[in-house]
Amino acid sequence: MAKVFIDWSYATNAFFEWVEQLVEDPLNVVVMVFCYVGVQWAFLYILYKQKLFLKV
Q1: Other CB atoms within 10 Å distance of the CB of residue 13
Q2: Which domain holds residue 33?
Q3: Mean pLDDT, the chain cut into blocks of 10 residues (56 residues total)
Q4: 55 lies in a domain?
Q5: Contact 40, 8 (CB under 8 A)
Q6: Contact 48/2 with Cβ under 8 angstroms?
Q7: Which end of the chain is more exposed for a tag (fewer CB within 10 A), N or C?
Q8: What are the E-state strand segments in the chain?
């Protein structure tokens, strides 16, 4: 549901664009995928620590 409200690729590029430039061409895609997942995980971890849950 967060995908509707947050553009994860934009957030990842905003935080980790410099990492993509440091890594060579074939590996930069893999590094950016890990950064993409890391940004999502960090957001969810912050919500977990603040005990913000969606009840269905």
Answers
A1: 15
A2: 2-49
A3: 84 89 89 94 93 82
A4: no
A5: yes
A6: no
A7: C
A8: none
